[in-house]
């Protein structure tokens, strides 16, 4: 199948599923002052051997929490609410619930060491309505803004830390969110960098990686990204370690029916939508917890306010799935993460290769 046609079919399926969703609280709205909101939408889309295309998860979002929130998060707050990252986190939640079924269209046992695996007949694409922030989208961003001048704050101009649009002329480097110079520092890596790293580790998270063989994205479906920029970001930056890289393939699409694109006269939506398409499950996030939930400033959120895709919720869902929760021997979340030796090894290789990967502060909590 022609790649452009293939990209169009994936985009059409994701946009159609999003348009049919009637939940208005999670979609951009017109504010009381008449200003229209915008947001980015992303979808993890399954492609079957018989060419059936089915969106599995859909998410929207453009926000990121400041790094200082990690001091009191205790695993209850979702820090990175960019659409791509939310769609992938929601896919991991989807995986756990597929494992709990007697039979699943998407997953099966039979992986290495009796693990689960994504069925071999399934490939995955990530559809996004805007180029991923960071290195992949620098040229696109420069051409789409009224002003493409770089940030010039003295504190930001150094070779160790590229934040948003500082050192705008530098490409092939790790960048952090958010993309505004007046935002509090997050240290959360750009979507370009996170997706680049997932070509090594796969898209499973700390919990699903315990019971699944690695699962990789096969395609990135997006408009506005030139092939040379895609190859620099996702291929050339990892050129020295090809044997352990599952490279993404770029697909473009032409039929864009998305109505919430960014524009100079629009404001970013403060909320994020989570939508699991097969089960019709919907949740809306605001500031990293469920929209409408009360949260005390600089305090750990109360039980019941957390999202289904926060780290605490993943541990809870995982413990419900396995027969003996005590099989998680690690006493804390970070120790559990670091106990996955091969996954940590691949992450470290990727971070070293990409260079200047400044870590976020820890967000740890007890799990036993």
UniProtKB/TrEMBL annotation:
PANTHER family: TRNA-SPECIFIC ADENOSINE DEAMINASE 1 (PTHR47803:SF1). One of its GO terms (molecular function) is RNA binding. InterPro entries: A_deamin, Tad1. It comes from Lodderomyces elongisporus (strain ATCC 11503 / CBS 2605 / JCM 1781 / NBRC 1676 / NRRL YB-4239). One of its GO terms (biological process) is tRNA wobble adenosine to inosine editing. PROSITE patterns: A_DEAMIN_EDITASE (PS50141). Residues 57-256 form the A to I editase domain. SMART domains: ADEAMc. It comes from the Eukaryota. This is A to I editase domain-containing protein. The lineage of its organism: Eukaryota, Fungi, Dikarya, Ascomycota, Saccharomycotina.
């Amino acid at each position: 199948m022609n790649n452009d046609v293939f990209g169009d079919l994936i985009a059409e399926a994701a946009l159609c599923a999003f348009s049919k969703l009637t939940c208005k609280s999670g979609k951009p709205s017109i504010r009381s002052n008449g200003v229209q909101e915008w947001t980015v939408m992303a979808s993890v889309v399954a492609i079957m051997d018989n060419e059936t295309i089915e969106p599995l998860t859909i998410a929207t979002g453009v926000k990121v929490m400041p790094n200082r929130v990690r001091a009191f998060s205790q695993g209850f707050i979702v820090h990175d609410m960019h659409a791509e990252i939310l769609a992938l986190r929601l896919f991991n939640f989807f995986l756990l619930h597929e494992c709990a079924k007697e039979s699943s269209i998407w997953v099966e046992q039979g992986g290495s060491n009796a693990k689960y695996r994504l069925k071999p007949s399934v490939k995955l694409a990530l559809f996004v309505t805007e180029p991923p922030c960071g290195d992949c989208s620098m040229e696109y961003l420069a051409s789409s803004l009224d002003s493409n001048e770089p940030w010039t704050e003295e504190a930001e101009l150094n070779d160790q830390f590229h934040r948003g649009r500082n050192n705008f002329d530098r490409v092939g480097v790790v960048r952090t969110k958010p993309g505004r110079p007046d935002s509090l520092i997050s240290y959360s890596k750009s979507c370009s960098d996170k997706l680049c790293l997932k070509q090594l580790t796969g898209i499973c998270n700390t919990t699903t990686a315990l019971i699944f063989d690695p699962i990789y994205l096969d395609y990135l479906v997006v408009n506005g990204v030139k092939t040379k920029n895609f190859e620099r970001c996702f291929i050339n930056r990892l050129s020295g370690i090809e044997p352990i890289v599952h490279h993404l393939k770029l697909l473009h699409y032409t039929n864009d029916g998305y109505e919430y694109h960014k524009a100079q006269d629009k404001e970013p939506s403060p909320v994020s939508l989570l939508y699991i398409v097969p089960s019709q499950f919907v949740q809306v996030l605001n500031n990293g917890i469920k929209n409408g939930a009360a949260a005390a400033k600089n305090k750990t959120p109360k039980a019941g306010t957390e999202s289904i895709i926060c780290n605490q919720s993943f541990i809870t869902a995982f413990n419900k799935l396995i027969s003996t929760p005590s099989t998680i021997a690690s006493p804390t979340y970070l120790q559990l993460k670091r106990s996955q030796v091969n996954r940590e090894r691949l992450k470290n290789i990727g971070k070293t290769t990409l260079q200047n990967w400044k870590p976020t502060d820890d967000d740890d909590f007890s799990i036993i």
